[in-house]
Design a protein that fits this description.
With 382 residues, the chain is of the alpha+beta class. The protein folds into three domains: 119 residues, no CATH class; 63 residues, Single alpha-helices involved in coiled-coils or other helix-helix interfaces, CATH 1.20.5; 139 residues, 2-Layer Sandwich (Heat Shock Protein 90). It is 58% helix and 10% strand. It has a five-stranded mixed sheet, covered by helices on one side. The chain has a two-stranded antiparallel sheet with strand order 2-7. Strand 3 and strand 4 form a beta hairpin. The longest helix is centred in the middle third of the chain and has 69 residues.
Length: 382
């Protein structure tokens, strides 16, 4: 845009001696179109900016066509480029089909008729060439629009699948809680005559299990349960993670699992345990696909947050940078998907957590997730 603007200024300056001061008005449509391209969307919506560029360009063309003895002629290269950029954005980004069609038609017409300002015989040829340019921009923008639509649908499908998987697993955990409630109620009935002092403790356990079940059910009613699949066994999160990391270390990259003492003293909800397992599994899968030459992988579980305030279970998966960096255009193992983190984020936020992934200080990659937890019950193993 800067180069074309300089070309336009040089052209007008060279011809102003013959056309007079009015020749500088040739730059006006280009300025308006340039501002329309560079102005942020939060300042002014795209249809208004593109409409202003169309009005400025068509007004200049109409002035040349109706003037019997125009003081200036010609059109700017910056104007044409900016109108084509606005045309591509309108065709790709505008969601309403009729508004997009109307605006794209106006932009295309403004580009095609601009060469008619020239008082030469070749203006029709220039208009025909710009018609090809308009068609090429529209074709590219529509292709990108189709790709954007496919990605949006893929993201929706991934999120829906994560919700369904979470619903299946929550169902299993709710059944586990209800079974515990039934067993404790039967025990209370059995000992109410022989050991009545223990009935209150059993009732407290029933109340706590019922509260946990209701919390899980609140999440369950927001999703739909379908086919059954395996889930993490309640209370065996660290054993599951040890098996997962050991299997990964044997097949791929040397991996280490570190569980801080504080992390062993908390009680994650069943759905949180499942989400932690899935975060670690997806992170290790990404290491296999994108950093297969990494010298080591560290999986660490610890507590985050203030000592006196609510603590959160922090899960961190960090891989060192590979000794040999992959080629920029190399295809990752298993192909390019790019939706794994979308599903993880959806699952993490569904249970009240948050997730972050990005480059590490040593050039490797770090994925961090934090989940809400409860303190361990006195005398329990967790």
């Amino acid at each position: 845009m800067a180069v074309l603007w300089v070309c336009d200024v040089v052209s007008v300056e060279a011809s102003s001696a013959y056309q007079g001061p009015g020749a500088w008005w040739l730059l006006a449509p280009g300025v308006v179109a340039g501002v329309a391209v560079l102005l942020p969307d939060d300042r002014l919506a795209l249809p208004w900016r593109a409409g202003a560029a169309v009005v400025a360009s068509v007004a200049m063309t109409a002035t040349h066509l109706v003037a019997l003895e125009p003081e200036f002629s010609g059109w700017g290269l910056l104007e044409t480029l900016c109108l084509l950029l606005l045309l591509g954005r309108a065709a790709r980004e505008m969601r309403q089909p009729w508004r997009a069609s109307a605006l794209c038609t106006a932009l295309g017409v403004a580009v095609v008729v601009a060469p008619l300002r020239l008082r030469v015989a070749d203006n029709i040829l220039y208009s025909w060439l710009l018609t090809l340019a308009v068609g090429g921009v529209l074709g590219l923008a529509c292709y990108l629009r189709v790709l954007d639509g496919r990605r949006r649908r893929a993201v929706v499908a991934v999120r829906q699948n994560e919700r369904l998987a979470l619903a299946r697993e929550l169902h299993d955990f709710v059944a586990h809680h209800v079974t515990g409630i039934v067993v404790q109620a039967q025990a209370a009935r059995t000992i109410r005559e022989t050991a009545p002092e223990q009935v209150d403790q059993l009732l407290c356990g029933i109340e706590q299990a019922g509260s946990e079940t209701l919390e899980s059910m609140r999440k369950l009613v927001r999703v739909l349960r379908e086919d059954d699949t395996g889930a993490v066994r309640p209370g065996e999160l660290f054993a599951e993670l040890a098996e997962l990391v050991a299997a990964f270390s044997e097949r791929d990259v040397p991996a280490t699992l570190q569980v801080a003492a504080g992390a062993r003293q908390v009680r994650p909800d069943p759905e949180v345990e499942t989400s932690v397992r899935n975060v670690v599994r997806e992170a290790l899968t990404n290491v296999r696909r994108h950093a297969s030459g990494a010298p080591s992988v560290l999986v660490r579980l610890d507590l985050a947050g203030p000592e006196e305030g609510p603590r959160r279970l922090r899960v961190e998966v960090h891989n060192a940078p590979p000794a040999r960096q992959p080629q920029p255009n190399a295809e990752p193992l298993g192909g390019r998907g790019g939706l794994g983190l979308v599903g993880l984020t959806e699952r993490t936020e569904a249970v009240g957590g948050r997730l972050h992934a990005g480059p590490a200080e040593d050039g490797g990659w770090r994925l961090t997730a934090e989940f809400p937890v409860r303190d361990a019950v006195a005398g329990s193993s967790a």
